[in-house]
Structures are given as C-alpha cells and as structure tokens.
Amino acid sequence: MGEPSNDDLWFLPLGGTGEIGMNLNLYGHDGKWLMVDCGVSFDEPLKAPYKTSSEHSHSGQKHRVVAADPTFIAQRKDALSAIIITHAHEDHVGAIPYLWQRFQCPIYTTPFTAEILRRKLAQTKLANKVPIVEIESDTTHQFGPFTVSWLSVTHSLPEPFALKITTPVGSVLHTADWKIDANPITGKPFDVNRFKALAEENILALVGDSTNATKPGFSISERNCYDGLLSTIRSQKGKVVVTCFGSNVARLISLARIAQKLGRYMALYGRSLLNMYGVAKQQGIWPYDLAVVDAHHMGYLPSNEVLAVATGSQGERNTALARLADDTHPLLQLDKGDTVVYSAMVIPGNEDSIARVNAKLSARKINVIMSETHDLPIHASGHPCEEELKLMYHWVKPKIAIPVHGEPKHIAAHANVAKACGVKVTYEGVNGDLYRLAPQPSLRRQVVDTGRIPVLQD
Ligand SMILES: [Zn+2]
Ligand SMILES: [Zn+2]
C-alpha cells in the first residue's frame, strides 16, 4: 500500500471498527501518522475451570484483556507524529501501559484523562517514563502535518472530546464517543453551535460512534437518570446498594446528592470507584458540598441511612457486589428487605454472571431492581441514538460517513442513518481496511493484517 503522500489523507483503524472495544485509529498524510486512542477489550470468556492466582480452582468464566495488534504502526514509529487519547474509558486508553513501549511517542490528552493514565502507568515499569502533554479544552495544536482541534462533547465520564483533524487536503471530524446531553450533571452541556459551525468548514469525512445506531430516538440525559434514581431510592426503607460503572463520575455525583437529600450516607465499595472518586476530587470535578463517608462506618448506621455504591454491575467475581451477594463482605451485610439497584446496563455476554449474583440476592429476600425492567430511568447510555446521529449529520454535512465503534450491525445502521441524511458516500468497513479520503475516496479491503493480542492475565 505504500506510505501516504502529500496528496493523500488516509484513515486506517487497527481496532474498534467491526467490534466494540480496543479502539486504535490511525490517520495518514504526507509520510506521517497520527494515532487516535489505544484501548483494550475484554475477550470472549474462557470456559472454566481455570486457576486463580491463589491456586483455587473455580468453575465459571474468565475474561482475557486484549488490545489491537499494533505491528503496522510500531514498524513506523518514527513517522508517528502524536498519540491522542479522546477520553479515559478503557476501550480508548487502556492499552497504553502495554503497548506504548512499541511507539515511544508523546501522548496528548486533557487533564482528567492524563491523571487516569498516570495512575495506570504508576503501577507499571513505565512510571514517569511516558511524556504526557495536557491539552486545554477547545484548543488547537499542530502535530507534524496534522492540525487538531479538541471539541468538547458529552459522554458518560468527565472531559470527553471529539477531534477535528485538518490537513491541506481535507478535514475529518473524529467524533469519538459522544451523546447529546443538555443536562450532564458534570461538565458543560453539549454545545450545538460548535457543531453547526462545522457546516462552514467543508468537512470531508465524519468518523463516528455507532454503538447505539440501532436504537431509535434520543439517549436519556444524566439529569433524567438522577430524577429516576431519586424516586427509586426514596421509596426504599432498608439499605440501598447501587451498582454502576466505576468511571461514571456524573452518576456518583448524582448518587451523593441523592444521599444528601434523603438523609442517607454514601460510601464507595470497590477499588475502581475509590480511584475514580480520588481523581474527580483531585481534578476539582467533585462538588465540595457532597460527602462520601468511610465504608468502614456504614455497618454501624441504621438501615434507612445507608447508600452503598458498589462495583460489580456485570456480575464480575471478587467485586463488592459479588461479596455482598455471598454475604462475605467484611464491611457491610445486607438483610431481607434491602435493595440492590443496577444503575447500569447488562452488557451482552454477561447475562449469566449477573443472573448468578441476582439469584443469591433473591434467595435472601433482597430486592433487585434492573435498569432494563424498571419503570423509571436509572441508567443513561453515553452514546448517540438514531436522532442524535441525524442531528450531527445535518449540522456537519460531511461528504463521507465512516461509521466506527460498533459491530457490523451497528455500522450498517449508522451508515443507513447517514444515507438518509443525504451523505453521498458511506463506507462500511472493518479493522485493517484502508479508507482513502483524498485525493480520490475509496475503501480498500484488508490492506493491513490486524488481530487481537493478550495484554495481561490476572
Ligand atoms: Zn467512552
Ligand atoms: Zn468507547
């Protein structure tokens, strides 16, 4: 395939297109490359029995952590102008500690994501060795032949960004993960005008999030989710445990506010929650008036004053919720009439592990409320549904639509939305395909060998 000339603008995904997870995107122009995101994925469960580190044999399932095979760009690391991380989710940043040695290129990201990344690297041999450059929101920077503008969006954690990537032969809007949230709880509301203004900027291609393209309508705002959780928790008499994704700082803030309002005390159970709370406090994102109490104190409180937030929303073993269900948690016991609320969605593939946890809870007469079947909104996705995608295409008016961040069915649904919005060219590709955007748009199938490589075994 050669190398991109100064007439070329190429997009080449090594991971995250044709699947959800392990995003690794490359842009090529004038002999140089730009990497956008470097994430992990959780591979298909390995069938039991397996050995844990403590040598006890368990039956059950274990996930393997994998990343995109980076050989193509590792062989061209001298031509890599920058690594940009759009936000702090594992599928966008999680592979840096394992793959960075093969690129040795500076990383550019915003302060919240930088702090999450530093904490990850601190546990590895790369502690203090990786140059991480913090970028201010809504600024523009030059990396080799690429001019990159950070455009703030809304998503399900602090500081998510889309990128406008400009070269002399064309501009791309790389949306990364986004939704339209007018009331995001933390961070600024979605700025419609910033995206409407792109219509004047002759955007050649939109490379965008397909996760919820099969879902009609609009995503739910974090504010609606707050209201739903408030009503749900208000009607409980006993202890309440809420399980959610650790990185959703807005959800944690909502829960702390709900606890304050209802006269409950909130404590966090699980390392990832405590880590995220620590970063949110350090970055000035956590509101000063909202208290989080020490989990050791919760056992002494009356039941109707307890709001525990626990990891384990996907039924994972050895998490706080799994221990509470087994009644082996050292700091908290649940009793008949207490309630567990899933402020999360069931990720496909995890149904059985979640059902196992819930069966144990139900056997002990502990109520279980799932977001999928509850009559109030208690979880909000961070990705755009069909109507949000339509708005984005009407605003930006790109010539080419490139759906990414999805399985083939999500990519096909996203492409149909783009076509219905009048986008002339849509490319439905997968990892390893070369999307030539300039000078002559075309999609060349399977130009680069891709695959997944294991990055750690726990
Ligand atoms: Zn994300
Ligand atoms: Zn993502």
Describe it for me?
- Mean pLDDT is 94; it is low at 46-61.
- The radius of gyration is 22 Å and the shape is globular.
- Helix 6 (222-234) packs parallel to helix 7 and helix 9 (320-326) packs parallel to helix 10 (351-363).
- 24% of the residues lie in helices and 26% in strands.
- It has helices spanning 71-74, 90-93, 96-99, 111-122, 192-196, 222-234, 249-262, 271-282, 320-326, 351-363, 386-396, 408-420; strands at 9-15, 24-29, 32-36, 40-42, 46-47, 50-51, 57-58, 61-62, 65-68, 80-84, 107-109, 132-134, 140-143, 146-152, 161-167, 170-176, 203-209, 240-243, 265-269, 306-310, 339-342, 367-370, 400-404, 425-426, 434-438, 442-444, 452-456.
- It has 458 residues and is α/β, with parallel strands linked by helices.
- It has an 8-stranded mixed β-sheet.
- Residues 87, 89, 155, 177, 382 line the site of one zinc ion (ZN).
- The site of one zinc ion has 5 residues, from helix 2.
List the helices and strands and how they pair.
Elements: E1 9-15, E2 24-29, E3 32-36, E4 40-42, E5 46-47, E6 50-51, E7 57-58, E8 61-62, E9 65-68, H1 71-74, E10 80-84, H2 90-93, H3 96-99, E11 107-109, H4 111-122, E12 132-134, E13 140-143, E14 146-152, E15 161-167, E16 170-176, H5 192-196, E17 203-209, H6 222-234, E18 240-243, H7 249-262, E19 265-269, H8 271-282, E20 306-310, H9 320-326, E21 339-342, H10 351-363, E22 367-370, H11 386-396, E23 400-404, H12 408-420, E24 425-426, E25 434-438, E26 442-444, E27 452-456
Parallel strand pairs: 3-10, 10-11, 11-12, 16-17, 17-23, 18-20, 18-21, 19-20, 21-22, 23-24
Antiparallel strand pairs: 1-2, 1-25, 2-3, 4-9, 5-8, 6-7, 9-27, 13-14, 14-15, 15-16, 25-26
Bound molecules: zinc ion (2 copies).
The site of one zinc ion has 5 residues, from loops.
